[in-house]
Known about the structure:
By secondary structure, the chain is α/β, with parallel strands linked by helices. About 35% of the residues lie in helices and about 25% in strands.
Amino acid sequence: xxxxxxxxxxxxxxxxxxxxxxxxxxxxxxxxxxxxxxxxxxxxxxxxxxxxxxxxxxxxxxxxxxxxxxxxxxxxxxxxxxxxxxxxxxxxxxxxxxxxxxxxxxxxxxxxxxxxxxxxxxxxxxxxxxxxxxxxxxxxxxxxxxxxxxxxxxxxxxxxxxxxxxxxxxxxxxxxxxxxxxxxxxxxxxxxxxxxxxxxxxxxxxxxxxxxxxxxxxxxxxxxxxxxxxxxxxxxxxxxxxxxxxxxxxxxxxxxxxxxxxxxxxxxxxxxxxxxxxxxxxxxxxxxxxxxxxxxxxxxxxxxxxxxxxxxxxxxxxxxxxxxxxxxxxxxxxxxxxxxxxxxxxxxxxxxxxxxxxxxxxxxxxxxxxxxxxxxxxxxxxxxxxxxxxxxxxxxxxxxxxxxxx
Length: 406
């Protein structure tokens, strides 16, 4: 068996999954001169009504790929980022984008997941028109005689120099490498939706990224657009003893949402009432992996470090993974084993630290001190003081996947 790619041939990389990680990786690899094939189980790219934040660390990857301006063209940038009290909407500004004491860039790009996926997909097919294969379900991966195989439903396989599992939290590639990864319920359910601004009250049109906080729940809201129409995207997490399916495409019922947020400000209730669809799922975590690579197979994104949404870092850390992996393969094109070892060294600790920090944030967002406004004001001022925000985010957003040592 050999770990070398023969001759001077650039690696052929097989990617399982056409989500954010798989498509970011494909663009990066193609731009670096490698060949790529992406296998996606869905029959087409599906519209998913979910917004996401791209922070500076993710923005650096998009910029290097030549896609940042395209994404910024559909961005609805917030003029401020605020924490708001759950009952009254009283707000506290926490946006230190221009603060002289913070050297990190806290700018946010706010887009729909489907729009980012479209931009990435179009970039892939512009470089290789037949790179993405839809309707192909992968079951795992292995390494045979120095070649990586993506195992397919039906008993077949596709072969390349490297297989990368970008197949999400329920990754079959991860399972084939490292066995079952039991999911533990965090004690919280998540809701998300998308409400057209035209159906909301005027105050919803303010260009704000807002996080409403309460004793047992919080809601993050921000503006996004699709085909020129503006929406408020919202994501809500609520403490609950009732487990829900670990799937962010599981439909939820309005009556259940209103019950979960009984007593909350009408502006929040209006978002649920006016949402074009409601989705509800349980938030789960898995033990962190100490390595992501085995043989000529490795992992990216939720497949190796699915995390809670409390820092808004999931998509950003996934794009970091993708670009660092592409760099490692590009710099060691004839030695896959060495490239994947360097990838693990560069990324595992960073991702696992982010994963742990995100989970810790639940206890900041949900606090008994938020029950009444008298105790909430000093709590919010302390928990979201400029220094606290810097400590929470500067190390995250200042990371540069395009230059970090590998």
